[in-house]
Amino acid sequence: MTTTTLPDQNAAEQTFESFGLDARILRALSEQGYTKPTPIQAQAIPVVLLGKDVMGAAQTGTGKTAGFALPIIQRLLPMANASASPARHPVRALMLTPTRELADQVYDNVARYAKHTDLRSTVVFGGVDMNPQTDALRRGVEILVATPGRLLDHVQQKSVNLSQVQMLVLDEADRMLDMGFLPDLQRIINLLPAQRQTLLFSATFSPEIKRLAASYLKQPVTIEVARSNSANENVRQMVYQVEDGHKQAAVVHLLRQRAEQGLSKQCIVFVNSKIGCSRLARHLEREGINAAAIHGDKTQTERMQTLEGFKSGNIDALVATDVAARGLDIADMPCVINFDLPFSAEDYVHRIGRTGRAGASGDALSIFVPGDERLLTDIEKLIKRSVPRGTLEGFDPTGEKARQEDSDRRRQRADVRRARGGNGDGEGEDRRRRHDHGGSRSAFRPSDDPFFSRPYEPSPNSASAKPADEMIAAALSRGRQAPKRPVAALLGGAPRKS
DNA sequence: AAAAAAC
């Protein structure tokens, strides 16, 4: 695979006009309030306009979508003809994404950029009725955004013809591979003309991604934009250690603290499991916080409603699994909280990438419990810096514990109800017991627990308590431990399996 | 240890 890297353009002096974009596109951009291209746009737009393949390392929040969508629209303009018959509207550009929400958002952007043109676009993804999608496809579109599974479904139903696709975008390609989409991707790509332009975007250039690129890209231009958040100085990262079982209370504490300080209430709280996600959302609601859960077991309608509610400000705390870690373009998230540290360090970067967009400042707060040492070490190794340890001022875990145990009991009752056939998810609030903890804002009494009663300090006997650099050094010097993955897998051989 | 995605 031959790879060329373009010299870094002087992005500061670029304007959208300077790319030679059509007036109809420029008009849409100025209506959207776009003024200056972001670095990824400055790099990608000219390259895509030239018809070159692209291997792009960029995350959401960098303006990546416009980086590929604008030049694609520009290149398709000669194909646009509003009065043409559906047969004259074959799919010319196909954009694939790993999650339904991301597909919807990419489509939303495309539609806005192409608003003043005659290009047609639509989006197809699972979890919703196929018929409206089929109708839209039958009417004809030049630009199609899709998740792989549902697209193949449409292909089988012969409601879409991909034989005229000239441009293919693989967005969040690493995620698609992680999710086992490779066979689907191969099936789809085999339906496309060999002569086409392919753009691949990925957060990482893992061996798997490189192999994918080697099979499907032709002499790609590599575009890399510095990870927006690993070294993003305007994101204040912090990790708080609490005891197992105090995590929910800690999140409540953090949210209330922010409210007290007059900071925005809007926040995404990431949880590793779907069950934990629903539970935390319920707990927050009980604590009087406007919260809602979003995860893969929610229906598509619920997912969209929740996202809408969050965007419109009706929901303050969006409690999410990693369905929301990547791609969700929620502007200017002031705060991201990791209720659980993510299993993979990559996911940490994606999660906190929800905040600190476009120079805005943001907080990325993580809850740490004993046993999370390895996860934190991995994260710090990846982002090449230590995450500062913070103290939960005035946090009273023992007082909170009683409440939490109580809520655990309630949850068990809800589980029993569910087992009897009721819907226990979020519906368990019918007969809520009243709790009086001496005031509307429950007091966080100083605790006798030595860990919580004083600020977090490094302690010699706890690996987790060492400063991050020491922890990393220790981890590195620990020597010949069995690698987490077989070497073959690291080299890109066998699929990983632990 | 998990999540995501077609029916």
CATH topology of the largest domain: Rossmann fold
Number of strands: 15
* Beta-strand proportion: 5-15%
Helix amount: 25-40%
Number of domain units: 2
Radius of gyration: 24 Å
Low-confidence stretches: 1-12, 420-498
CATH superfamily of the largest domain: P-loop containing nucleotide triphosphate hydrolases
What overall form do the CA principal axes indicate? globular
User: What CATH architecture label of the largest domain applies?
Assistant: 3-Layer(aba) Sandwich
pLDDT averaged residue by residue? 78
The strand order across the widest sheet is 1-8-2-7-6-3-5-4
Question: How far is the first residue's CA from the last residue's CA?
Answer: 30 Å
Largest pleated sheet: 8 strands, parallel
Number of helices: 18
Describe this protein's structure.
GO terms for molecular function: hydrolase activity; RNA helicase activity. It comes from Cupriavidus numazuensis. It is an enzyme of class 3 (hydrolase). Belongs to the DEAD box helicase family. This is ATP-dependent RNA helicase RhlE. The protein has helices at about 25-30, 40-50, 65-75, 100-115, 130-140, 150-155, 175-180, 180-190, 205-215, 245-260, 275-285, 300-310, 345-350, 375-385, 395-420, 450-455, 470-475, 485-490; strands at about 5, 55, 95, 120-125, 145, 165-170, 195-200, 220-225, 235-240, 265-270, 290-295, 315-320, 335-340, 360-370, 390. The protein is built from 18 helices and 15 strands. Residues about 1-10 and about 420-498 have low confidence and may be disordered. Helix 6 (about 150-155) packs across helix 8. The longest helix has 23 residues, at about 395-420. It has an eight-stranded parallel β-sheet with strand order 1-8-2-7-6-3-5-4, with helices on both faces. A seven-stranded parallel β-sheet has the order 11-12-10-13-14-9-15, with helices on both faces. The protein folds into two domains: about 5-225, P-loop containing nucleotide triphosphate hydrolases (Rossmann fold, 3-Layer(aba) Sandwich), CATH 3.40.50.300; about 235-475, P-loop containing nucleotide triphosphate hydrolases (Rossmann fold). Helix 13 (about 345-350) links the parallel strand 13 and strand 14. Helix content is about 40%, strand content about 15%. With about 500 residues, it is of the alpha/beta class. The chain is globular. The structure holds one DNA strand of 7 nucleotides.
